[in-house]
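Is this the right way to post structure tokens for a design question? Let me know if I should format differently. Anyway, here goes:
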């Protein structure tokens, strides 16, 4: 039996965190946490005809992190990368760089998005969670998409869901209400709306408007029981 569910480069210093819920966001560098279900085959087959317009998805000082939607038997929580700058990369190149899932990986998508949401809520900066789906996944999570969407709304963490496959009825993409990015113009439109929303978070805070953030202080340990 294979125990590895993702290709994980050792140089990134993987870690797990038990997050604390933090108060409202403040102006400053944003944090994007990406949950990706893409495998090498997905990248090769589904993005080869897409010109990736995500080079300006984040600003030069913004930070990006990646969460793998698998829960290794030896770990008590999901694997998450340390924060790094986007460095004018494109999204798919970034996903490929940090590690791609193996085709046979057992996915815990909703649970991983829940984890990412708590991670994002720990900071005081503009934040968002982005779920990138291949379109043909099977989710083995304890939670479901609707429950996790509601949780992130309560945490005031914006959630974006993009899919490289059609959101056909009964699919994981449909359950999340995923936005179609199967064509370049679809991805360009989704990326533009994301950047506008992130910039609006900065504007709202600096102008004294309502800020995005967590509902209060305190420590919270997240348990992820086996499905």
């Amino acid at each position: 039996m294979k125990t590895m569910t993702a290709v994980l480069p050792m140089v990134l210093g993987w870690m797990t965190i038990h997050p604390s819920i933090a108060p409202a966001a403040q102006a400053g560098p944003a944090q994007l946490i990406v949950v990706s279900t893409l495998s090498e085959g997905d990248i090769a087959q589904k993005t080869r005809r897409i010109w990736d317009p995500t080079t300006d998805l984040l600003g030069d000082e913004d930070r990006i992190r990646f969460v793998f939607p698998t829960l290794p038997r030896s770990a008590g929580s999901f694997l998450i990368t340390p924060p790094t700058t986007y460095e004018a990369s494109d999204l798919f190149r970034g996903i490929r760089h940090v590690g791609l899932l193996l085709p046979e990986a057992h996915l815990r998508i909703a649970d991983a998005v829940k984890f990412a949401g708590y991670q994002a809520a720990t900071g005081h900066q503009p934040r968002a969670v982005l779920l990138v789906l291949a379109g043909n996944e099977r989710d083995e999570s304890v939670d479901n998409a609707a429950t996790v969407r509601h949780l992130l709304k309560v945490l005031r963490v914006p959630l974006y869901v993009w899919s490289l496959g059609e959101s056909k009825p009964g699919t994981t993409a449909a359950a999340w209400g995923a936005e179609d990015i199967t064509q370049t113009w679809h991805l360009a439109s989704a990326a533009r709306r994301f950047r506008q929303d992130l910039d609006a978070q900065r504007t709202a805070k600096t102008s004294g408007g309502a800020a995005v953030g967590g509902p209060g202080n305190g420590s919270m340990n997240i348990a992820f029981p086996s499905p």
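Format looks fine. Someone answered above. Worth noting: The beta strands are 31-36, 63-67, 84-85, 127-133, 159-163, 179-180. The helical segments are 40-46, 91-98, 109-121, 145-155, 172-176, 184-206.
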